[in-house]
């Protein structure tokens, strides 16, 4: 009897030891097969299965801070380093084991391509040559490799401040036989949209936009809009260069730019050292002088004024230079002259660095005026002299009076003698000074930038 009791106890101990050993083996298997980096600055691959005793078992992941790493491994960086705990759990028929990993999500790096949180500009000379496909860098411009009809550059994923809209644009030399196309995709909640295209654009062609969409984002003429009241956290872009034959000069890309609409974003640089008066002598054009289309061409008229200011003699092409730019910059798909992107890429076709910008304060605009130059600005609403559903004007300067009143100095292509006379009794013609309040109530923040 005593021997029987000893045998039972021994068997119980053996069974107990075997159980512990099997659980330990599961733990060892998890430790051996699940590898998570200690520090991350991009999405991580969370394994979904392990092999244990020749059986495949699923891994269930839990994040204790979904704001920085979700259960699919999507990483969202913040302004500071953040430690996140990830739990990996494996269930077998008999056992369940959980391992906890501590992962540090590194703070966002300040990328040299970001001018500001809301404006990304990447110059061709700074592109990653390892990502060139049948393209090369020559004289700081991206062009096709000799003998190639088509090539492209595809960027790495670009981390950004969360945004609801984007305007992508580019500067390039092109022609009717040689085009540049910008494609963009955006990431929302860890999922990529398809590549959305701004269409191939060539100087002198009847260029056209064509809206497209998927369940994440859509193009709306010149904007990429995030759907379902969501925000994107990353984007990636592809620039495609094409020519019809090898004897045609290659298109040449100067830069790409992305202007972001960011909810509740603020950017107000210090302007204490700026002068109280600043103005550029920008040549004046009135859109109403162009027959038939005059009421619709504020955008190419503003673009023409900027080109004239930059020294381009458009009068060689047409006695009405804004009629000339209107034909070149028109969006023949949407049948409008006010496609922001088509106007800036059109300006860049004169070998200028031009792109669509987004600004978030008058102080930002003041600083740009003083440090860079005049811009075209998109406005809508009550301009005082007239109402507009959408209009472009050239902002050429500003004036601050002794009592602190601020006036925005513009060339408004819509203003002429039909609105009366100025303070000196002269008929109004293009030049005008809007009170700051009027300007800020109507300005959308969008500008045409010419460096």
Structure description:
This protein folds into 3 domains: 84 residues; 148 residues, Jelly Rolls (Sandwich); 174 residues, Alpha-Beta Complex (Cathepsin B, Chain A). The longest helix has 32 residues. The relative contact order is 0.10. Strands 8, 11, 12, 14, 15, 16 and 19 form a 7-stranded antiparallel sheet that branches. Strands 21, 22, 23, 24, 25, 26 and 27 form a 7-stranded antiparallel sheet that branches. With 451 residues, the protein is of the alpha+beta class. The N and C termini lie far apart (99 Å). Helix content is 18%, strand content 37%.
Question: Tags for this entry?
Answer:
alpha+beta; 451 residues; 7-stranded antiparallel beta sheet; elongated
Quick structural overview:
The chain is α+β, with helices and mostly antiparallel strands. The chain has helices at 2-33, 298-309, 321-329, 340-348, 362-371, 436-442, and strands at residues 39-40, 49-52, 55-63, 82-91, 96-105, 114-116, 119-123, 132-133, 135-138, 141-144, 150-154, 158-163, 165-173, 178-188, 191-192, 196-197, 217-220, 223-226, 232-243, 252-261, 277-279, 354-358, 375-382, 387-400, 406-411, 431-435, 443-450. Helix 2 (298-309) crosses helix 3 and helix 2 (298-309) packs parallel to helix 4.
């Amino acid at each position: 009897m005593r021997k029987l009791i000893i045998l039972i106890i021994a068997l119980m101990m053996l069974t107990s030891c075997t159980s512990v050993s099997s659980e330990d083996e599961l733990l060892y298997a998890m430790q051996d097969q699940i590898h998570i980096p200690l520090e991350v600055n991009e999405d991580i691959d969370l394994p979904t299965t392990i092999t244990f005793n020749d059986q495949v078992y699923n891994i269930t992941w839990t994040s204790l801070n979904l704001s920085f790493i979700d259960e699919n491994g999507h990483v969202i960086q913040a302004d500071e380093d953040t430690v996140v705990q990830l739990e990996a759990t494996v269930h077998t028929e008999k056992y369940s084991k959980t391992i906890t990993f501590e992962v540090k999500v590194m703070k966002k790096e300040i990328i040299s391509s970001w001018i500001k949180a809301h404006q990304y500009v990447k110059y061709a000379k700074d592109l990653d040559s390892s990502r060139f496909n049948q393209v090369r860098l020559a004289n700081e411009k991206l062009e096709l490799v000799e003998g190639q009809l088509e090539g492209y550059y595809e960027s790495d994923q670009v981390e950004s401040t969360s945004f609801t809209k984007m305007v992508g644009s580019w500067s390039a030399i092109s022609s009717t036989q040689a085009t540049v196309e910008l494609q963009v995709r955006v990431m929302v909640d860890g999922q990529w949209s398809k590549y959305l295209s701004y269409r191939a654009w060539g100087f002198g062609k009847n260029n056209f936009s064509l809206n497209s969409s998927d369940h994440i984002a859509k193009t709306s003429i010149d904007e990429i809009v995030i759907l379902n009241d969501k925000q994107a956290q990353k984007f990636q872009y592809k620039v495609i260069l094409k020519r019809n034959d090898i004897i045609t000069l290659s298109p040449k890309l100067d830069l790409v730019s992305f202007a972001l609409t960011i909810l509740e974003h603020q950017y107000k640089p210090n302007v204490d050292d700026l002068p109280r008066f600043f103005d550029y002598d920008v040549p004046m054009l009135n859109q109403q002088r162009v027959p038939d289309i005059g009421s619709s061409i504020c955008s190419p008229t503003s673009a023409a004024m900027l080109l004239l200011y930059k020294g381009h003699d458009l009068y060689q092409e047409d006695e009405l230079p804004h009629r000339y730019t209107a034909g070149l910059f028109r969006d023949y798909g949407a049948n409008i002259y006010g496609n922001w992107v088509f106007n800036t890429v059109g300006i860049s076709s004169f070998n200028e660095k031009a792109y669509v910008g987004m600004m978030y304060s008058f102080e930002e605009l003041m600083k740009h005026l003083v440090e860079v130059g005049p811009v075209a600005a998109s406005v809508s609403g009550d301009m005082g002299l007239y109402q507009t559903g959408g209009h472009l004007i050239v902002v050429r300067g500003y004036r601050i009076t002794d009592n602190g009143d601020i006036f925005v100095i513009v060339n408004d292509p819509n203003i002429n003698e039909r609105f009366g006379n100025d303070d000196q009794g002269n008929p109004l013609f293009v030049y005008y000074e809007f009170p700051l309040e009027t300007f800020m109530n109507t300005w959308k923040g969008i500008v045409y930038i010419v460096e």
